Amino acid sequence: MRLFLLSSISLLLLPLLFFGCSSTQIKEREEYSTYLSRDYLQNLDFSGQDLVATLIGNSWYYVREDGKAISVIRDDNGEADRFREGLARTRINGKIGFFNKTLDIVLKPIYDFAFPFHNGISEICVGCQEVKEGEHSMLNGGSWKRINRAGLILEE
Which of 27, 46, 118, 142 would be a feasible disulfide site paired with 125, CB 3.0-4.6 Å? Predict the structure, then answer.
């Protein structure tokens, strides 16, 4: 009897599970970060810093003490991109975006290339391609624009 009662209640609640929430109530959340294991974190030296840069395989990551990590692009010297004006760059699925020091994405990765911010402005490119020339790379083609820290395109 008890099993029958529980099954009946479950069947009554099932429609609520599927139809009780409208799609506007379910917030889609994109994850750009990951969490590292405690074992890995024990090998990092935070020494009072909120973040450390660490090389995992061939990729740089910024890591918080709680293990939250986000990939960061390499600068000209092969090091982790530095924060400029509170933002650093990440490359996810081939696109560049910006994140802050709490490792939250501020500008989604939608640009084919983006320079670091300087005086509140970043030069971005959509449609450009990176062309290797020896140990350096050049950018070819695309549409270049300037954006502010909110991601709004600035008029020329």
Answer: 142
